[in-house]
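Second attempt. The first submission of EamA family transporter had a stray character pasted in from the spreadsheet, which I only caught after the job came back as garbage. Lesson logged: always re-copy from the clean sequence file. Corrected sequence (288 aa) follows.
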Amino acid sequence: MTAVFALATSLLWGLADFGGGLLTRRIPALTVVVTSQVIAMAVLGSVVLATGGWSEVGPQLWFAAAAGVVGPAAMLAFYRALALGPMGVVSPLGSVGVAVPVGVGLMVGERPGLLQVAGILVAVVGIVLAGGPQLRGAPVQRQAILLTLIAAFGFGAVMALVAEASSSITGLFLALFVQRVCNVAVGGTALYVSVRRGAKALPEEGGWEIVRSSLPALAFVGLADVAANGAYIVAANEGPVTVAAVLASLYPVITALAARGVLKERLRASQAAGAGLALVGTVLLAAG
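This time the job returned cleanly.
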């Protein structure tokens, strides 16, 4: 079941990233993040009340709170790195954060078998290649590399933290709700500061009407992200974190394939090779 839930995580994260990327073409990125997470927080709050999730309050929720703080900070660093570019280098480098949960799994005593080690190595190479790395061309600023590595570490830390946030279904909903509350608090603060500095919270053309008409898409992004986090928590609790983390990190492949299918973007040779390697790595992990 670990592989099933981890692959579901990749699918949901990949679709959420694709949807979020489309929305940021019309709406400021911070507004996309905050609005989608507010919707998700409202839905999760209702679920927690309906399921009696408040009874699961305990010290493990600090992990969810930490993930809720680290996640938006990592995303902001990633957006800043993408702005500095080149995107062809920054985007795939963000995937190396998988080393964090894998490292945590090894530290707590997990010892993957030979096939699983081979699968991890092959899948990680595939993940990086699927992002379409730009191997030559424009120089990369040191600040962009530093911000990307900070973001990657943050993404990996979120995976490690949410894996410890709950061990029951009702507790899962509460942990996800706490994470969203912290996401909104951090993202909302960043949005407020950004507006105070002169940035726009709404699109210059269309304003609030564009945001209002995009609410269904924003809800999908927020809820897909929530579902992905929930699926990853289940995957990490059901089996080895080293396996769950790598399979859950296949989302760049999903994003690239969605761009190919919906936007008709052509995959580079390296992306096609990466998708193939990621599939091979998945098979090896499942077989191990």
